[in-house]
Structure prediction request, 478 residues.
Amino acid sequence: MTAETIAYSDAGVTLKGFLAYDDKLKGKRPGVLVMPEAFGLGKNAKARAQRLAELGYVALGGDPFGDGREFTDLQEAIKVAGALMADPAKFRARARAGIDKLASLPQVDSSRLAAIGYCMGGTFALELARDGAPLRGVVSFHGGLQTQRPAVAGQVKAKILVCHGSDDPLIPIAQVTGFIDEMTKARADWEMISYGNTVHSFTNPDADGTMMPGIKFNAQSDARSWLAMKNFFEEIFAK
Amino acid sequence: MTAETIAYSDAGVTLKGFLAYDDKLKGKRPGVLVMPEAFGLGKNAKARAQRLAELGYVALGGDPFGDGREFTDLQEAIKVAGALMADPAKFRARARAGIDKLASLPQVDSSRLAAIGYCMGGTFALELARDGAPLRGVVSFHGGLQTQRPAVAGQVKAKILVCHGSDDPLIPIAQVTGFIDEMTKARADWEMISYGNTVHSFTNPDADGTMMPGIKFNAQSDARSWLAMKNFFEEIFAK
Prediction:
């Protein structure tokens, strides 16, 4: 298994991604971009990239902020992520840079690409779908569902899977119903799984509720959503 | 594979169920009750029971109306089903009779039971969960989510999976949010999958939209929801 830092760039910013793939496999494989939480590309997103590599995919952990910057302080993360998200064109371009890098790799079948993400990373994935990026699918795990640029009818190419914690205090029900309305009007191919008894960051084993009670790991919802993603990939990557 | 009519009863009514299981398998297996649409126990629910038998489960297609009565006219079905559903105690007892029959069978591990259902059958399954029936899980496919007797906190034993067509005209969004509210307050273990571009009866290959446009098969949502159920069963039936 290969796991290494890989440099790419967007708008003059050097991005330090994390590439993982099984070097024993031959031929071109589907490529999956993994966008992290607002804390930056850290160990959780990297671990997911490695698990995707074990499934036979080429996975690229995307660097949202440049130079591999990570934050431990929630307020600082919100500030930096907020600045990035304020301009939807720049935000989308940051994710597109990761997709372009992935598509350029010799191991990757560029006709079979997907993006997944966690929290802010989920929003990255959904923004790629809204932007009409040439992806087979996107998966959002506890990602924000709002957008400044709603999807346009007939323009979404990616199938969409949203994995949502029903008690997520950062994603209230009005945001959920707004998303459903947006994607229905856009005639996107979408599916949303709502997990009961589940709050924000439910896939993150380090989220123990101390940062805030509404940010907490849920082993069952984590396992279920990973399996849902796995099945989704088998569907969308079928030739 | 064995597939046969099996008689049982509820409140003096003779019910004609449909039992399917793999007779080559040894030992006790999980048992799954399959409750049909309001048209009665017909070929679709029977076919699902047979597919469950192929997965290694003992499946009982339940007879909702007695004597295996089936209807082809929608208004007649609504009338008979409506009369049955009007009394929640009787409605629940009708499903309980199926569970009791299933639990009594020598092939069935009575500690590993589940109920699934389609349309009205989905409501049967959910009512069993609300009633605190001793089930590992229930799955509703395009089932009505309303109830006269909301679940009581701490009383729901079954894990719940709801597979819902987002454009189902018979199950409006207010019913969906009401269900989420009910199950959250009841602290039930629940999960809901909403499928975009999907209306009522999406699992029924005979639903071609001629009865009404909002009653129509959707091959992708059918396949996805069946797979979700399969994975759910692997989780809940694990020893």
